[in-house]
Amino acid sequence: MSAGKDRTNNEESVAPDSRVTFEGIREVVVPLESASGSGEDADTRSPDPLARAHFACQPGGRVHSGLECTVCARFVNWLPNADGSQVTIRCLWQESDLVADLMTHLDGDHGADEPPLGGSSEPYDWPAWSVPPTATLGDVVTLMREQDTDIVAVVGADGPIGLISRDALVDAGLGAALDLG
Predict the structure, then answer these.
(1) Backbone angles phi, psi at 28, to 5 degrees
(2) What SS3 state is found at 16?
(3) How many other CB atoms sit within 10 Å of the CB of residue 26?
(4) Do 29 and 86 touch, CB atoms closer than 8 A?
(5) How far apart are the C-alpha atoms of 114 and 16, rounded to whole Å?
């Protein structure tokens, strides 16, 4: 694990002997917008593939350019595909990262065909377990393992603000920490 500032604000919430130590690489494949476009946005006309890669790191989160990834502390690298139509952006997630950085935002615009967790459009039961946005991914992994749950609510001072699912942790490269390989 790399040295860095410990952002954990709730050390008492998980006993030290039950803390999970892990890191994982998340790969996000992003289709590129055409470089020959005549749009107003200079990013869509750029020959730089990262400038033409637009996506949201978190479901319901802000859409941004792949260029912004290069200044993120989690950024590892990026790779173009063979025909230049998409890039794969790789980022590193660790147990000390905040759950708020990976959660699905409840206030995001998911559209009628895209429920917040990417599953059934039927209403889902609210998770029985919750953590504050200052909890770490290690705290969430430990809670999921100990309580055998697949989803945890993220609750801020004014109520629910997001959800973190087992699938989101697996997508972030953290399946081994959940004993999912």
Answers:
(1) -115, 120
(2) helix
(3) 20
(4) yes
(5) 38
Q: Using one digit for the tens of pLDDT, what is the confidence trace for 13-70?
A: 344 445 556 778 888 899 998 755 444 454 445 778 888 999 887 777 788 888 988 8
Percent helix / strand / coil, the chain, rounded to 5: 25, 30, 50
Instruction: Report residue 26: phi and psi, to 5°.
Output: -100, 135
Q: What HEC string does 113-139 produce?
A: CCCCCCCCCCCCCCCCCEECCCCEHHH
Query: How far is the CA of 26 from the CAs of 66, 90, 91, 113, 157, in angstroms?
Result: 14, 6, 5, 25, 29
Tell whether the torsion through CA atoms of 89, 130, 157 and 7 is positive or negative.
negative
Q: Full-prediction pTM beyond 0.85?
A: no
Can you tell me the distance from the alpha carbon of 57 to that of 55, in angstroms, rounded to the nearest whole number? 6
Cβ-Cβ contacts under 8 Å for 12 (sequence gap 6 or more): none
Name all domains of the chain by residue range, CATH numbers in brackets. 24-93 (no CATH), 96-178 (3.90.1280.20)
**DSSP conformational letter for 84:** S
Task: Say which residues have a Cβ less than 8 Å from residue 98's Cβ, sequence separation at least 6.
Answer: 7, 133, 134, 135, 136, 137
Return the CA Rg of the chain.
18
